[in-house]
Write a structure and sequence with these properties.
Number of strands: 10
Order of helices and strands: EHEHEHHHEEHEEEEE
Shape: globular
CATH architecture: 4-Layer Sandwich
Strand content: 15-25%
CATH topology: Purple Acid Phosphatase, chain A, domain 2
CATH class: Alpha Beta
Structural class: alpha/beta
CATH superfamily: Metallo-dependent phosphatases
Length: 221
């Protein structure tokens, strides 16, 4: 019998065909393997419902990404995310309420021995358990104060991370992945026509499949 693996999948963004191919390439067995999505499973791509169905079939876990976070904020009347929410509501139909109920259960991070998984990253000035969810799903850069976490003129948050514990994150497609001893970035821009990536542990192997096409234009910041 094959040993259990932990498989962390990068930002899918509704690219269900590519996710299905990745699952086949990895020969994932939901009864044996632990599968974790890094967040942003839905939105932007062509088939969010299909990606969500694969997530359920794999009996997977997922972190909250900034797109799921924004959807919840919209549903709760705190943000205006109407254009994306309407599209997702139309796509999911009568299953939209189930989608909302499910993503409400997704945590901002998962921490196990030797591993911290988070959608966007960690703040250098706060323990992850005390970091606001909005920062966990959106941080890219560090300004030394925690005020502006998106400014491309500032260095990336992981330049300040020196803990030996491995942090695995997504969110920043423009980097097309990051590989350091203690940091691995898995957003390799599938929805933008690049690749969908997964990290296989304990081997630390990264497996990628090419996108069928570019479904939208990438933001450079």
């Amino acid at each position: 019998m094959k040993p259990q693996r932990t498989i962390i999948v990068g930002d899918v963004h509704g690219c269900a065909r590519e996710l299905d191919k990745l699952v086949g390439q990895l020969d994932i067995d939901p009864h044996r393997d632990r599968v974790l999505f890094i967040g942003d499973l839905i939105n932007k791509g062509p088939d969010s419902r299909g990606a969500f169905e694969i997530y359920r079939q794999l009996r997977a876990q997922s972190l909250l990404g900034n797109h799921e976070f924004a959807l919840l904020k919209h549903v709760d009347g705190e943000w205006n995310w109407a254009r994306n929410a309407k599209r997702l509501q139309k796509e999911f139909g009568h299953d939209f309420d189930e989608l909302i109920a499910t993503i409400r259960t997704w945590p901002g991070y998962i921490e196990t021995e030797g591993l911290l998984a988070v959608h966007a990253g960690v703040r250098p000035d706060l323990p992850v358990a005390k970091t606001p969810m909005a920062d966990l799903v959106s941080i890219r850069t560090w300004d030394g104060k925690g005020v502006d976490l998106q400014n491309p003129a500032n260095p990336p948050w992981f330049d300040f991370y020196d803990d030996p514990q491995l942090v695995v994150f997504g969110h920043w497609a423009a980097l097309e992945g990051v590989q350091r001893d203690n940091v691995i970035g898995l957003d390799t821009g599938c929805v933008y026509g690049k690749t969908l990536s997964a990290l296989v542990l304990p081997e630390r192997e990264i497996v990628c499949v090419k996108a069928k096409t570019a479904y939208c234009a990438i933001r450079k910041k």
